[in-house]
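Researcher: Quick sanity check before group meeting.
Model: Go ahead. Protein one:
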Amino acid sequence: MILKGLKHKAGYKTLKKQLSFDNQSSRKAGEGIRSLGCLVDLDWVEDIAIFYELSERLRLKSNAIKILGYRHQVDNIERFSVPMFSEKDLGWRGEIKNGYALEFLSYDFDLLINYYHQPILPLMLMSSKAKSRLKVGFSSVEEDINNLILSNKVNSFSRFEEELVKYLKILKEI
């Protein structure tokens, strides 16, 4: 228990340092959304098909969306339809030790959706390290991670999707 606490403390220090770096995409604003990354807390979300439907609404190609799921504890017997990572894939200094997560970090996204409503260290580290021009998330998570922050009162995905599309239109991204 003490070691887990120390590991989290070291991870939060790394997160604060990481937030000072610029992980922006090389593309400029107003060029439209061509690629979408989604970091999803699968302890909170049951069906990831909603993200594929969102990508269709944004008129993205089927290979333009990448989803990375997170579970606090992953049973090795469970099978998932998306790449997964968990708490155990976080090293002592905030380094990520998961092949799927490292592959996700290698992409340069136009839009990154941080779909988790609680401050979860591994998800926040992934969000801060991901290269994206625009990051969208909830107000209950570290505000420095996201460029566009939606209210925590967005308790259904359809409401979240409406708000996101509304703001993307205002920003002339779609």
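Researcher: Fine. The other one?
Model: Protein two, sequence then structure:
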Amino acid sequence: MLIRRRRSRQRMSARAAWAALVTVLLAALSLTVTSPASAATYPTQVYAGNNVRAGASTSFRVVATTTSTARMQCWRDLQVVSGSPRWFLVELSNGQEGFIHSSLTVPSTQTSTPKCDTLQRVRAADWALAQLGKTYDDTGRQVTWAPGPDKEWSGDCLAFVNHSYRIAGHTGLGAATAIGQWNSPPAGAIKMTGLLPRYGDPVFTNIPSVGHTAIYIGGTSMIGTQGVDGSRLPIEIYSLYNKYPTYQGYLKLGS
């Protein structure tokens, strides 16, 4: 009888050990299957191959094309398309940002986001895009660094970015040159390298002496002023890499 009891206890212990092992394996399998990093990071499903724009309207320039998933940043109601005025600023799974119409997303996968007007970087980009094609600033600004005539944008890349952020409610980026701004950013700013910027972030390139800065508007595009003093070049959208291949990074200012 004693031997039978010992064998019975041994069988029960073996079963308990196997049950514990199976529980651990199932838990591990569950974590692997239900919690992929990509799904947690980019929960919104997007119809691939469609236009991503610099603003919430088909009148804005195409800066990228959609991938299959996206991270929603904010929403804005503007141009009505397919019966809806709703647009979303999204970050695609390849890191690019821009606006897409709500009809390009799968409704059941949309996530809660703030209104775009609450994001300072979007307000800065809004004002910058409204200056597209202009040669002069017509807001009566007072500039502290103006290598060319007062109110002239050509040659005033830092003044243009700085004023965009002041209009958006920022205290200003300071510094006398773009390279100076990059080397000594304002309090609270975070220098970012090796990644694509967020929509509306100031971007910097290391051209000789003074550097260059503009505002990122998704894809690989930025908006700003360029050219030497007196050239009277208008505000334009151009490539983050092709025009100035010495891209350094961007400043992250707030949300």
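Researcher: One line on it for the slide.
Model: DSSP finds five helices and twelve strands in the chain.
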